[in-house]
Amino acid sequence: MDRHMQPDVRVPVCLPVRLYRHARDVRAPAPGATRDLSLDGAFVTSPQAPWPPGTTLECELQLDAVRSVVVAAVVTRRTTDGIGVRFADCGDEVLHRLASVLEQEVQRRHRRSR
Q1: Contact residues for 3 (Cβ-Cβ < 8 A; gap 6+)
Q2: What pLDDT does residue 77 have?
Q3: Core vs surface per residue 92-112: b (16+ CB within 10 A) or e
Q4: What pTM, to 2 d.p., does this model score?
Q5: Band of the pLDDT at 17, cuts 50, 70, 90?
Q6: Cβ contacts of residue 22 below 8 Å, gap of 6+?
Q7: What single string gives the DSSP state of each residue in 56-94?
Q8: Do residues 87 and 71 touch, judged by C-beta distance below 8 A?
Q9: What is the pLDDT of residues 71-109, one digit of tens each?
Q10: What angle do CA 110, 3, 105 make, to 5 degrees?
């Protein structure tokens, strides 16, 4: 990842997401997709994400056909088309994987703009 990119810089990238809200040990995922992504959060479009700001979730981000990461997240805002989430407690491995995805997307967009 570009060393000068700030962690909160959002990149428009669409990744499949499953959102989990733990309730009585039952995990019922709400499907969705990222509309934008950064190292510290994302906006997730999901009509099945009714949670208000402050709700703690687990987000499973599908990075490619075989790799996914699960990150703890806190809902920061809710709109009619989805929720904003801030990632919490991301380990170095997760940050490295997210940075790789963001870098690939930035490079892909740069090549297309030439």
Answers
A1: none
A2: 93
A3: eebbebbeebbeebbeeeeee
A4: 0.83
A5: very high
A6: 58
A7: EEEEEEE-SSS-EEEEEEEEEEEETTEEEEEEES--HHH
A8: yes
A9: 999 999 998 889 999 998 788 999 999 999 999 888 988
A10: 30
Give the whole-angstrom CA distance, residue 37 versus residue 102. Answer: 8
- Condensed to tens digits (0 to 9), the pLDDT of residues 32-61 reads 999 999 999 999 998 777 889 999 998 999
CB distance 64 to 104 below 8 Å: no
Q: Can you read off the two tokens belonging to residue 77?
A: 């805002």
Q: What share of the chain is helix, strand, coil (3-state, %, to 5)?
A: 20, 40, 40
Nearest to 71 by CA among 82, 54, 85, 81: 85
CB 51, CB 98: distance < 8 Å? no
